[in-house]
């Protein structure tokens, strides 16, 4: 089930909105054509992202996990940069995006969506 945590989303939106945010998407596709539906979602979402000043900065397929442990790997990773938090919220609420989201949602068996803030100390 792909659902935003209301508490986490509220906390995310309440924080400072003064700079870009990158969304890390770890994706596990549904076994019944999920990868193909995800590509359709991306075709639908790209012009919407552009309209909000957002862009895909990295898209890649997962390779075998190199670390030991119970965690399974992910099928794909997507990094999307938004101008700020309120832009992400506006896009999520956009009616055209909601149509694309339904396609994207049907493509996935599991997802981790984690916002990232650029860290200038490490650059």
Give the gist of this structure.
The chain is of the alpha+beta class and 123 residues long. Helices cover 40% and strands 26% of the residues. The N and C termini lie far apart (36 Å).
Structural description of this entry:
The structure is a single chain. The protein has 123 residues and is α+β, with helices and mostly antiparallel strands. The chain is built from 4 helices and 4 strands. It has one domain: Alpha-Beta Plaits. Helices cover 40% and strands 26% of the residues. It has a 4-stranded antiparallel beta sheet. Helix 2 (34-51) packs antiparallel against helix 4 (95-107). The protein is globular and about 35 Å long. The N and C termini lie far apart (36 Å). Pfam families: DUF1330. This is DUF1330 domain-containing protein. It comes from Sphingobium ummariense RL-3. InterPro entries: Dimeric_a/b-barrel, DUF1330.
